[in-house]
Amino acid sequence: MFRSISPVLLCGVAAVAQAQVPLPASVQAGSGKFVLKADDAIQTNSPVAAKEAEKFAAGLRTSTGLPLTVGTAQARIRIGIDESVRAAAGDEGYRLNVTPEQIQLTAATAEGLYHGIQTLRQLLPPAAFSTQKVGGIEWSMGSVKIDDRPRFGWRGFMLDESRHFFGMDYVKHLLDAMAARKMNVFHWHLSDDDGWRIEIKSWPKLTEVGAWRGTECALPNTREGETHKRYGGFYTQEQIKEIVAYAAERHIDIMPELDMPGHCLAVVTAYPETLPGTADDSVSVQGVKSNVISPAREENYKMVDDIIREVATLFPFQFIHVGGDEVNHNAWSKDPRIKELMERENLKNLSAVQNYFTRRLEGIISKHQRRMVGWNEILGGGNLRPDTTVMAWTGTGPGFEAAKKGHPVIMAPGPYCYFDMGYGGPDEPKTHWWAGNVETSKTYSFDPTAGGNLTPDQQALIQGAHSALWTEFVTDGEAADYRIFPRLNALAEVAWTPQEKRNWDDFTKRFGNDLERLHYQGIAFRVPPPTALW
Ligand code: TNX
């Protein structure tokens, strides 16, 4: 069921040759085409341009078998930094001119060139994405002038590696697929009830104990029907560095998430003393008991401080996500130390206790020169630091509310952006349902600023569009690919393309080529049913 389609079949699907996803801001087709020749080389004007050009050449050498050397000698393909492009293209945009005689790509920054290179790759036949040499193809692209820049600076995707663990190769494969579609933030959900996935040297049991579940482990099997003796895994700090570098080469930032104070069963299994002193039998919305750490235990802040310090040395990105979602406040209701805290700090209820915890986290994160991101539940209390960023997941409403309070906002509403929801087809594997079906067309229809009734200043606080795959029901990479693709292709266009240029019918005409690229990238995407059924 998860098998991707063969290229032969796809020829029927792909009606328009070399169509772009996401659609650039401005495309003017010319006449004639540029055909790659065996002696073509790439001319660059600076070390920065040469570095990006080399990435382009390396991919094409594999699929075309052509030598494509990169240097400063005059050549028909020119890739260069040009400060004058910045006025029109900003930091991430580029200008591209393809004629039968030459290709000229310019941008003010390395990112801009990188995005332009993705466009160039997409202008070639989809087999340019092949990881093996493909013979019998004319490597050409139609003449075209493109001026491009993204609608949003934040174009994100989250992978939950706690519920199930996928590993390095899978993450790299995702980063490749994101980069080809100009996405730039990978949000790594590295902790939850079902496993802690990042080595923290000052608290070793987080992974020694918290990364493994099953009948032979302290952390029990957490998913319905699981019979593992031992299941799990984690990333060493060396592996994290390798992934961060791999992403950086693709101009993708990685935002780690350590979810707290709820969703902490793995943490409290490793360090039971982090729990409230008096247990309570209540459960979280997901039915998990005793998975909330205590905000009244001072030593917990020391632990969080140690974790954030280590995390900040591994991830250069300015944002760290600390969760804050679905906290079962009742878990705190019987603990005398919580009652003392409430009296001391004049906290009126248990929501105010979460707010107290969130504000302590803000302090810790800013001490380590990072900015905090949290799920929209952190908004309760209304007294957060203005630069704390809210990720809206239950809908766009809490995002608009946050923008009205002056917070930066990332929009990831479940009904459009949660790829763990079903596609709604008859062949749907078991999955989440709480946000309804999320057909690819539903994702495509998302406009992050629509309906907010925001002033221009508030609108400017909406940083972009973000998507997520939660993996309670997703056990391996192939199943994850099926859930993510092609919805991610649609989300990439939501986040990049100017709203007035977006049109579902037009997207469906360009879509076949992009599925073909997915195929060559080795992605087991879901084959969409005929258009009438989307
Ligand atoms: C809600 S989204 C959660 C996750 C679940 C997801 C399933 C969010 C912040 N919390 O823990 O995996 O729903 O769709």
UniProtKB/TrEMBL annotation:
The active site is at E326 (proton donor). The keyword RNA-binding does not apply. Residues 21-128 form the Beta-hexosaminidase bacterial type N-terminal domain. GO terms for biological process: carbohydrate metabolic process; glycosaminoglycan metabolic process. Its EC number is 3.2.1.52. Keywords: Glycosidase, Hydrolase, Signal. GO terms for cellular component: membrane. Residues 152-498 form the Glycoside hydrolase family 20 catalytic domain. It catalyses: Hydrolysis of terminal non-reducing N-acetyl-D-hexosamine residues in N-acetyl-beta-D-hexosaminides. GO terms for molecular function: beta-N-acetylhexosaminidase activity. It is an enzyme of class 3 (hydrolase). Residues 1-19 form the signal peptide. Belongs to the glycosyl hydrolase 20 family. This is beta-N-acetylhexosaminidase. The chain holds residues 1 to 534 of 839 of the full protein.
